[in-house]
Amino acid sequence: MPSPIVDVLGLTHDEFLAAARAALPEGHGIASQLYRQALQCGGFDFSRLGTPVPATRQAQWQDSFRVGLLTPQRILEERGTLGATIKAVLATADGYRVETVLIPMRAHADGRLAASTQCLSTQVGCRMGCTFCETARLGLIRNLSAAEIVSQVVTARVRLGWRAKNLVFMGMGEPLDNWDALHQALRVLSDPHGLSYGQDRITICTSGHLAGIERLAKLGWKRLNLSISLTSADDETRSRLMPINRSAPLARLQQALLAYRPRRCFALGVNYCLLPGINDRREDAARVAAFCRPLGRCLVNVIPYNPGSQPLTRPPTDEEVDCFIGWLREEGLAVRRRITKGRSIMAACGQLGNSQRSRETAGV
Ligand code: SF4
Q: How far is residue 322's CA from residue 339's CA, in Å, rounded to a whole number?
């Protein structure tokens, strides 16, 4: 039986070198250059190695390794003051759709884009069932592999020209529910021989997956960023909105977060999806403050609700958002209003996954 073809995008540089040494005992000396090409250019280009590689040897490489790019299916854009928010729907080799979004974050004084963040998916669908989230409606279809997670970045660079400065795991799926693939993808994305993302450029966003938060803490990556989706600091309301709260209520989440202090200046991101009539009262703001107070530095991101295909409520007005932010500040919290980007193309927070209805419609 021939050995299966290994996807380079799921390997760190050292793992690829070891695999190359095993697969091609002679001629593996170019492995380091091929790794850089795969991660940065999305393929092997033997003509650019400086030394000629015989065709038979090239074929041996191609028979042993592949660079698993995803297939762009749809690209949707929404123009805003900072630039375009772009949603890419990418097809996996087995025909599922994965969504990734490029979000402009900062612009130079002359209007040129200074920094952007790419939002990555870790699963096709999600089993967490958050009621304000479109992805939840799919249920969990399957986990993405580490190579497929990394491929969202590589495919976007090579096929779409994206150059995201920051990465946030806040797309389809609960990242900590797919730990092995997430962990390996983090190792690959931060590998200095490949894409070389610094830990401080990466944020994991979780709905409150306790075992995953513990694993992250054990990882000991001091500069990695973490944010949680809080959305209510009242157990009854949060359990209704986010079923994970039934098995991991607020007190236990708070304990897990207290144990997660990777560095002295660490600021926990606390995402709060503002749902008019559900979690936008004065006492809701006070509860958020009570939850955050023991946790040290927190930055609360207030995210105006973005209705999906079956809206839970209406989006809040600007006045309602400002009012809630004012209450949080009165409580002494650091607060940032998340400017809504990509709502019209279903690319905003909580809106991903609407295009994934079936493998058949993926058209691959
Ligand atoms: S908000 Fe995140 S964790 Fe909750 S259902 Fe949606 S994708 Fe899953």
A: 12
| Residue 349 annotated to the active site | yes
Q: How far apart are the CA of 277 and the centre of ligand 1, in A? A: 21
State if residue 135 touches ligand 1 by the CB under 6 angstroms criterion: yes
The H or E element spanning position 149 is helix 146-160
Q: Which ligand 1 atom lies nearest to the CA of residue 129?
A: 5
Helix (H, G, I), strand (E, B) or coil at 343: helix
Do 113 and 81 form a contact (C-beta atoms < 8 A)? no
* pLDDT surpassing 60 at residue 114: yes
The answer, yes or no, to whether residue 256 has pLDDT greater than 50, is: yes
Q: Say what percent of the chain tops pLDDT 90.
A: 78
Counting from 1 in the atom list of ligand 1, the atom nearest the Cα of 205 is: 2
pLDDT: which is higher, 144 or 25: 144
Helix 13-23 / helix 31-41 crossing angle, nearest 10 deg: 130
Q: Does the domain at residues 71-362 carry the CATH identifier 1.20.950.20?
A: no
Cβ(231) to ligand 1 under 6 A?
Answer: no
